[in-house]
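TL;DR need structure tokens for one chain.
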Amino acid sequence: MVNRRDLDPDASPQAAYGARLRRMREERGLSQVELGVQAEYSGTHISQVENARKLPTLRFSRRVDLALETGDSFEREWREMTHGALLEGFPEYMEYEGRAAELRLFDTGIVPGLLQTPEYAQCLADSKVRRGAITLEQGDDLVSVLAERQATFTRPHPPTMMVVMDESCIRRQVGGPGTMGAQLDRLLEFAEQPNAVLQIAPFEIGERRALYLPINLLTLPDMTVIAYAESQTRGHLERESMAVWPLLTAYHHLQAEALSHAASVAMIQEARKGYL
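>> reply
TL;DR here they are.
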């Protein structure tokens, strides 16, 4: 057995997860290495999760559920553990996001999460921790959840993604020059994808910017459109068409006023030169 230590399951949700994983594994007579083989992880990785030294991920939870034949219990425990750092309404939104056929995103000031590099996302989480808005563990959860969300868009048939960003998203430096430069590179890589449309809403459009708050619009496989928006302290998922369609109309107006895909790429390339 690799590096075992006793944990108090009441110490933290992460400790409870690790203690339960160890108990379920031992009940089935499996070593950490044997479970690792079945779950496609190393025995060391299993040990680190059991000892609360490494945060479990969604993929990890699903793999151990499959290996231990525990239904979706570890996945559900992971969701309960990580969602404490998320705004109200966002966990439910993620369920829809993962199966959307098309996404329309608009953001201001900050690059949309699905397009953030790990370093950019970590800078934002660290800032919240320093301000005392979240705990260090919750900051780690935010970065972990974002990585899991991004992973769903590498599937064989990813959804169409239409992204409009206010110009402030590429002008506001997050982290050092290296972090911001790499983030702009990531946007340029995204723009090359066949399922991507990227537009910048320049400062010069002024009052013609039809949306003033970030919004996510999802088209589901049955062609239903839902919306998700956030205030500073909570999120709201909107399913009623009477409320969603005006937002969709505003998004169309925003796209018409924003720079074209090619012109937006050129603006990002110009901004990138400031971080060489």
